Every structure is written in C-alpha cells, then in structure tokens.
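Convert to structure. Protein one:
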Amino acid sequence: TGLTDPVTTIVRPHVEGGFVADGWGGLHPFRVGGAGSTISPASSGPYWRSWDIVRGVALLPSGIGGYVLDGLGGLHGFAVGENLNPPPVYGAPYWRNWDIARGAAILPDGSGGYVVDGFGGINRFAIGGGTLPQGSSGSPYWNNWDVVRDITLMGNTGGYIVDLYGGVHRFAIGTNAMPPAATGSPYWNNWDIARGIELIRGGNGGYVLDAWGGMHTFGAGGSKPAAAIGNPYWIGWKIAQGIAG
C-alpha cells in the first residue's frame, strides 16, 4: 500500500526482497520466494566503473531509498523508483585513504544506524534530523584483523555481523538482551568469500551473501526463509559486496 509523508509520495507494493550491491555501485534487485512483486529499481546513486570500492548497502525501512557504503566509510544516498533521494547522514565514521568500512544497517524507525568496520567495531550514525542511536555490546572484535564483512539489525534491540568465512556473530543494542543464535548459516573455512548478511522482515531468519552473488539462508530464532529469486550471480568473480532488504 502507498504511504505519504510531507516530502514525497512513497509507492511500495508488498515486496519481500531488496538489492545486492556490486563492488562498482550497481544495485541489483531480488525477491524472496513468490511473495509480492520485485522491488522497483534504484533510480539514482553513485557508480564507480571498474573501481571495486563499494562495501555495503542499506535500505530505508520505508523502501524509498537507502545508502551505498564505500570502503572509506562514505554513505551515498540512492532513490528507489520515482522517490527522492534520502536525507544526508551525520556522525558516520570516515577513514580517509583507508579501505576498512565493511557494512551498514538502518534502524526500523529510519532515524539512524550503524557502520561496521573490518575489525568488528560498530559505529553509529544519524539520518537527517535523527539522533545517534544507542551503542552496542557483546560483539566480537578482532584487533588489526580485517575479518568482518557486514552487519544487519534485528529490530532496534540487536543484530548480527558476518565474518569473511560466513561466521554469524550476535550483538545487543543498549541494555537489550542478545538476539538468538543464528542456525544453519553457511561456513567456508579458510575461504574469504562471505560478503553480506541481511535479516528478512520479522527478523527470524535471513541470508548470507557470498562474493559471487549467491544468497544462503539461515535461521535466527525461527525457520529459514524462502530462497531468493532473481539475485545476480557472477561465478568466479568476487564482485558482490552487500545486501539490503
């Protein structure tokens, strides 16, 4: 159903799906199972042809757009369909000349979110007039080892980060309890191939993205979700870099 706010008209049918981001900034829609229709294409956003600099993507809960994360921590807005670009972000980390940003996720109210770095540091940012979200706790940290690849949120209470081998690790937000442990997620021992993680709406399962574009289901306090449909796949080319839905 359509939603209206003072800025723009949001047209979003019932869609279970999202985008896979490639390393150049291309955003490729996918859907989940047979539910609804495919999400509208991204209509704006950055693109760095032949430069593998994108490290993540995050979609606003309204579905009007989101942000592409570059390796230095820059968050670049994009629109979905005929919507306007989202507002700028504030307080996000930026590592000039250091490719260490690895993933981004947005809170359910759209007021802000988190950028995870390669060591596992979870860094806050605000969107538009929002305030910085609460800090996180309980997540692992690998000092001086670039091991983390993405972050996803379970509502506003906690979430998960994924490491380069596909290991899924929990964290809490504020004083909330830790989310349930992930089950059934893929693991590629000693192979740096995992690139993204995303929970489905409702938060009881999701997908781990590999660098070729493969999307692998896992549970998080519930059964695994349906398989993704229409996601891109680049066999033998490590160009997939993030997932958002």
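Protein two, convert as well:
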Amino acid sequence: MKQALSILFLIPLISGPPAPRGIAAERFGTSAGPEVGRYGGRLVIGVRSEPRTLNPLAATDGPSREVIAPMTADLIHVNRFTHNTEPALAARWSVSKDAREYTVTLRSGVRFSDGHPFDADDVLFTFRVLLDEKIHAPQRDLLIVGGKPIEVEKIGSDTLRFSLAQPYAAAERLFDSIAMLPQHLLESAYENGTLARAWTPGTPPASIAGLGPFRLKAYAPGQQVVLERNPYYWKTDAAGQRLPYLDQLVFLIAGTEDAQVIRFQGGDTHVIQRLGADNFAVLSRTARQAGHVLTNLGPGLEYNFLFFNLNDLSSKSLPVAAARQSWFQDTRFRRAISLAIDRQAIVRLAYQGRAVPLWGHVTEGNKRWINRNLGHPDRSPEKARELLRAAGFSWRDGQLFD
C-alpha cells in the first residue's frame, strides 16, 4: 500500500557570483535542461528528528539518509524522473558479451569536497568496505549476485572492472545510491575497526568529505544541520557554471509531523515531505485560503507492505518460527492472506483516498518496472477460507488451526 508522497516548495530568491565556464564534458557532468540559475540563497527542509549518523555505511534511519544524500554521489545514477540510468561519477561504462563484466571509466579531475582527488582507489576501497561482513553495511546484500559477492578489479587510475557470478538484468542499477567513500579519510578507521562508528553528527566538518553538491558546515544538536555549497562539485549547468546554485541547505529539526506542518505554515521551512493524510488535508485548506496551489504528485517509489519470512532456518534452533514457515511456504496460505486484506478500505480510511492499492512490490510511481499484467483480485474472505481449508486449516472457537 503506497501513500502518495507530496512535497511542497517555497523557493527563495537566488542571486550571486559567477562560476567557471568551458569545462570538458567528460570531466564535468551537465545538469539536464536549458535553464540557467543564479547563485545564492538557502533552502530549509523540515525533518522530524536528528540524524543518527553522517556515515553512509551506517545510515538506516530516514533523517540520516536525507542529510547524507546531498553530500554523496554514486557511479551510475538512476534518474528519479525518467527512471533511466545515466552517468554520474562514471563517465561511461561497457558490458561484456556474456553480461557478467562491467568496465567503468571514471570522470577525470573529480575532487572530494575537501579538495582531495577522487580515483579508482577510492572506488576499490568503497567496495572492499561494503563487502566486508564485519562492517554490516546495509548495502551489502545488494552486491551479492548469484550467491556470490561482486568482484572489483582496478584496471587503471580511472578504470575498474566489476565481475558478476551470473548475468543480472538490473546490474548497472546496483551502483545507484552507493556513496563513494574517501579512502584518505576513512582507511585508518577501517583498519583499526572503528569505521562503523566514524562520522557522527558531532564529527568536525573538516573530517568529513563527499562528492555531492553540498558539504557539512555546522551541526547544532536538537536544532539544525547546515550544509554549504561544495566548491569542488563535478556538475555544471547548461552554461558551464559549476553547480549547485544554493549557498546552503538547512535541515531544521522539528520533532514531529505536526511540528513540521506548523513550521512550514509559519514560513520557517521551504520544504515539507512525507505527510500523513490528515496533515495533507490541513495544508490543502490553508493553501486555498492563502491563494496557493497544492499539487498531489501521485505515488512515489516507497510502499507499505506485509511480507513472509521464507529464509532457510534449518541451521538455527527456532522451532516455532520454522513451524510457521511451513504455512508461509504454501502459496494457498499467502493468497488467502492477500484476499483477506481490504486494500480499498485502507486507501479510503487510513489515507483518506490519497493512496494507491498494490498487488505487487512495484508501485505505480515506477513507470519503468511496474507490471500492469498482474491480477487485481477483489477482497474475498470466502475465497480466503476456501484456500485455507484446501491447505489443511480449520476453525475452532473462532481461531485458525493447522
């Protein structure tokens, strides 16, 4: 079940100094679109809680990921509007005939936000860390293909080869959102076993560097996180001006969703996101009264879901979980649960109509991967009971027994 993600913007006026022009295309990526902006200003985003970490390897909570994302960059990026892959830190790449090897060539002249050069050694270090089981990086599972970790080999200072155990249709998409790490700042922490605890919100800004459009400027506990323009950022606009335009990106810590709405209504923040249906309705009313237009952008890529644990537990001493897995492994049981869920009622009551029911794990917002041939069976407790009976279940005193 996916709630529509609505983001509201009040953009400040931006103006300011010029930037370098005439930069080689391979060295610098060019932002899509012919629009050319002006420098200056800041954008304030309301978040509900403080980031727990500024370390891409340890970030699992939403606020941490939101703050980290503008400070990092990936090799190959998935465009969130077209859903196609496009060059990022990798200027280009090629695929072998058997679709098991990806040769990636990095952009030349790219620097981290502290001015240190970025090269293949940083990529090699990043994947060595991600694949190290002792680090427990949340991205590690994505890098296991055909039951084996991806192998990474340095071919030259700007070239690497990634080898997969078997062909994988979405292989180049694996590189999206995997932040490249600065070996010169993190290698010692990795070697002494403290990498997972590195880069807390209290770490001095000079000790943190990334490849995103912004870098850390200041952190005031309980108040805000301030990012400033990265003067070494590798992207330019259509006129060759180095991006970003904004001087600062500020994450204002509001505490709760209701507090986020109040700060937004008061003009303290320019952006609010991940609203519940009730607060969306509140802002709809106040927007009309103020003469503003509130636009529902439709379903996003995230979704709420119920899943069954089908992991192999044979080697673990978990008899109760193993017994329930025998239910989950029966397709009739899983279909019965699906038929018993009233998706339309959830959309109507929990989301006030601002959601889209799902019958698969890809949302309507993902136009490239959505399978529109999936069946959409109506809710039917009667059919659910028939399936459960066929699977050997029965009812006694209002309870279901296997």
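The chain is about 20% helix and 20% strand. The longest strand covers residues 214-220.
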